[in-house]
Each structure stands twice: as C-alpha cells, then as structure tokens.
Write a structure and sequence with these properties.
By secondary structure, this protein is an alpha/beta fold. It is built from 4 helices and 10 strands, in the order βαββββαβαβββαβ.
Length: 161
Amino acid sequence: MSTLEAIRRFVVPAIVVRAIDSQLRVGGRERVERFVLWSGVREQDTFLVRTAHVPRQTAYRLSEGICVKVDGNELHRLNVWLYEHNEELGVQVHSHPTGAYHSETDDTFPIITVRGGLSLVVPDFGRTGLRGRGVASYRLGVSGWEEIPFEDGKQLVHFEE
C-alpha cells in the first residue's frame, strides 16, 4: 500500500458534506460521538472523495467520557467494499461533545492508518458542521498524528459548493 503523503488536496463534494453533517448531528441528538469515513480515488496529487461510509458502530458513555467502536467484522465488510469499488480510505471524521482535539483514544485506535491520511474532529457533536468553527484537522505522519494549522487545513481540504 502506498502512502497519501503526496496528496496536496482532498476534494469533498457538497453532497458528501451534507450527508456527514447530518450523520454527526444525529449522533449529537443522541448525545454520542459518530464516526464516518471517506473513500475515493487519487488523481496526481489530489484525493477525490467519492463515498461517505458510516460504519456500524457502538457508542459508549463511560465514566471517563464517550467513544465509539467499530468492530472487526464491519471493518472487513468495508475493506471488501473498497476493493470491489476500487476506492481507498483517505479521511476519518468524528465528533466530540465539546472541543475538537485528537484524544489519546483517537491517536491509539484510528481506522485511517496510512501515512498522509486525514482525521477531522468536529466539535459540539457536529452542531455547526464540517465547515463550522473549531473543526480540528490532523494528518498522519511518521511520528503519529500531527495537527494541521487552521489556514493550512483550509487549503488541504476543499469543500465543493
């Protein structure tokens, strides 16, 4: 598997943004985090997002906080789908109940594991959506997840109208 480190732009269709915002808000109304994945194809240094995946997941409310789990059978199903549709995972998106940041759990148990992949964390259970204030962006590097400054993130992720 090659890395996504050469990708300089992730292009996200408006229909994908609307679908994800809706999913994050559904989780928010239930007061749980929601986890979503984007797959697509590469064209030179651009990753074209084609599909949003909302894997079957179990939400937990624990004394230490909240989290979601996607089990191995669901990951296998997703990998088969990716193979059959000639797409690859490039971005994971999930919501947090308050501020957006990469938690220790986010760092330790990502679904996106290819260098150059993105992780977007949306605050306030997605209330203001992917384009709202406070979304945190991270990119997987050799040393782990590295936060992307806000202005750089705006250049890296292009949301189509």
